[in-house]
Amino acid sequence: MKTLVIGSCVCDVSIYLDHLPSTEEDINTKAQKMSLGGCAYNVSNMLRLFSVPYMLYAPVGTGIFGDYVDSHLRAQGVMPARRVQEENGACYCLIDEEGNRSFMALHGAEYHIHKDWLDELDMHAYDMVYVCGLELEETTGEEILSFLEEHRELKVVFASGPRIQYIQKDRMERMMKLHPLWHLNGREGRTLLGDMSLSAQETVKRLHSLSDGAVIMTDGGNPVTVYDNNDVESIPVEKAEAVDGNGAGDAHIGTLMALLQKGFTLEKAIQKANLISAAVLGTKGAVLPDDRFNTIKDGILR
Length: 302
Fold this sequence. Notes:
The chain is α/β, with parallel strands linked by helices and 302 residues long. It has eleven helices and 14 strands.
């Protein structure tokens, strides 16, 4: 069975600097890089690396950024799901010397996904679907939810994303009723609950009470905290030099999905995802290069 990945593929413009500028400060950057990115694309790249069948449903628009995404997807042997007339946006990723990343995004065609497009898919081929909160927040987010509600046979994997507090309350409630496997980080979880002082264990328990599904919460260099089957577990992470934090969370959830599709248990899949996430954290860019992945793949699949 295939995995359906619904979401964006964008042009990431990564800008590396010593620190984020303050108001009216004039600083020189250390480097810049353009590459394919977007949460859904980053996730789908891990499925590709693990040779798990998937479909990336990311519309591609017009303009210089749309043309960039189209040509670079095709160069990787990936046909864009749909070309549309709306202009593509871009994501400007500011990365400081400690690897912390801040985003400035201009959303365009890549974030607007319509239900009638998804209805054209042969859903007999899929058993798992990935959705990001960034798309739910958009004007077409309600259409994605309606599509999911018509296909409750799918295992929903939900990455609520860095703008979790901006997802409309009614849309979050509809997503929670789908009982997704919920993947997020500690800042996002505590922000949603309105209490940044909560322990990791208490955070995942409260999040589980909202969805009645498994909750997987990453937390930087702290252990990954999991709530599943009425049990809380802490899974240590791999220590890594922080070069670029962009895409580390996407690689984590993409690896997790790939290994669940390959029959790994949730605990074992998270342990392996921690290794991949550490490798991405130590690499410039949002995705793990193929040659780097190939050096660690055998160890991951043992």
